[in-house]
Amino acid sequence: MEQHRYTLEKGSKKDFCPACNKKRFVHYVDTETGEYLPNQYGRCDRESKCGYHLNPYKNGYSQMIKEQEQGTFNGNWKPDQYARVVTIKKPLKSKPAFIPVEVLKQTLEPDRYEQNVFIQNLFNNVPYPFEVSDVTKAVELYKIGTIKAGYRKGAVTFPFIDLKGNIRAVQVKQFNKSNHTTGTDFLHSIIDKHHSKRNEPLPNWLQAYNKNELKVSCLFGEHLLSKYPLNPVALVEAPKTAFYGTLYFGFPEQPEDLIWLAVYNKSSFKFDKLKVLKGRTVLTFPDLSKDGQTFKEWKQKATGIESRLPGTRFIFSDLLEQLAPEADKKEGNDIADYLIKQDWQNFRKRKPKQKPPEPVPEIKEPVTEVRKIRQPKKETEDFEFSETIKKEPEDWQTDISELERYFEKMRLPPEPVRLNQCTVITNVSQFLKSHLQTVKSHNGNNRFLPYLNRLQQLRTTLN
Ligand SMILES: [Zn+2]
Fold it and tell me: Labelling 278: which of 27, 150, 220, 292 has CA 20 to 30 A away?
């Protein structure tokens, strides 16, 4: 009977919890008097997150009242310190385990890039091939690597490295010649399978890593936030898109230049992941989706996140949503699919014309050997890369001169010209100017062969 005198208040009335301050606290009531027990007696109903529970039977309170009522109380009651609050211990947030730097470094071995389908496509299979130096720079920036052997041979690796340089996940993507996904995987799963097939024990780091509840627990490119503390951010879904964004819009060189980051997938646009963007301006580009669902969802979430992260501003442009045909939306196309059809040179900031070279000072001592001094490596930063394959140099001078002579003589049509099924030149004279300039400054560089080919195609078409 005695045990039923003090009970938790019935009903749904909640007060502020003395431990967590949330309005989820239920008081104990003395059923004989109908009054509340002192404020601290009660239970927080956030059982797993707070767990505060002070029970009057557990700290001697009920005994003390009984003695008072029986007249035997000596006035010296002290709540039993050890039984004061029965809290369910918060499950200790187990520290996440990371992927060792050595494991990432293997994916970054320079001679692997020749096998990397994604990277090689950027030189050979896109309409407007990129320069080796730009791709190398972007690869270094994001620490993108290659799977060398096995069933994912030739796949590209996209590491998710956090603010502190911890490697939280390495996504593995297989692409076809048009850089569309044909397979998705994770480096830790590949390594896991490799050992399991051979009945070998997993390495210690992987045993720990497999216990992580969430694998992709930071943004792709997050490590750049500490390197570029002031820059605005462009946020997309997939790492590939962030990589394209950098190649098209340029590298973060000035404080106003964009850093391109990716959340991983459409459901990872969440506070926990985005709180690292505190104080930044964030241009946000969700992938297209049926009826613009993702766009609406992210936009709504962003409003909530902004209110929790003072100084942060998410900017959404619905340009893509408005322009994209319904078929693209159904396919979930993204900004990468649009960019790759454009000439990246038109997107880069106009750089001031290069100054004429300074006169070279006269060298008195004969130079016998020029060596590149190697910079000492920092711990996780700055892996070394070498340029990817170089092809035999060719010379297009004859072709270029012929083209120049041909176009000089002719009157250019003011109207758009259709070059082939998918290319329409809207401004012929501008097209000529930029294409001729490109082939001249990259004479013989096979990656720019499509430019030469387009010029020749134009000549055939106009003929
Ligand atoms: Zn509480």
Answer: 292
Q: Are 276 and 163 in contact (CB under 8 A)?
A: yes
CA of 311 to the centre of ligand 1 (A): 30
The whole-angstrom separation of Cα 221 and Cα 227 is 10
Query: How far, in Å, is the centroid of ligand 1 from the Cα of 80?
Result: 21
* CA of residue 274 to ligand 1 center, whole Å: 26
CA of 87 to the centre of ligand 1 (A): 10
pLDDT of residue 28: 93
Q: Are residues 123 and 176 in the same domain?
A: yes
Which tokens in the block code for residue 164?
């502190």
For the chain, residues with pLDDT lower than 50 are 1, 81-84, 86-90, 352-354, 356-357, 359-392
Query: Both 305 and 236 in a single domain?
Result: yes
Residue 181 φ/ψ, nearest 5 degrees: -65, 130
Instruction: Using the mean position of ligand 1's atoms as its centre, give its distance from the Cα of residue 48 in Å.
Output: 10
Number of structural domains (the chain) is 4
Note the pLDDT tens digit of each residue in 91-121. Answer: 556 688 999 999 999 999 989 999 999 999 9
AA letter at 284 = T
Residue 457: inside a domain: yes
Are 126 and 45 part of one and the same domain?
no
Q: Are residues 132 and 190 in the same domain?
A: yes
CA of 24 from ligand 1 middle (Å) equals 6
* 21 CA from centroid of ligand 1 (Å): 6
Establish if 355 belongs to a structural domain: no
* Of 50, 65, 83, the domain-final residue: 83
Residues 6+ apart with CB under 8 A from 55: 28, 41, 43, 86
Which of 32, 56, 83 is the last residue before a domain boundary?
83
Asked if residue 136 belongs to a domain, the reply is yes
Confirm whether 42 is domain-assigned. Answer: yes
Task: Give the residue numbers spanning the domain of 448.
Answer: 397-462
Q: How far is the CA of 82 from the centre of ligand 1 (A)?
A: 19
Q: Cα of 26 to ligand 1 centre, how many Å?
A: 10
Instruction: State in Å: Cα 12 to ligand 1 middle.
Output: 15
User: What φ, ψ does residue 235 adopt, rounded to 5°?
Assistant: -115, 125
Rounded Cα–Cα distance for residues 262 and 173 (Å): 15
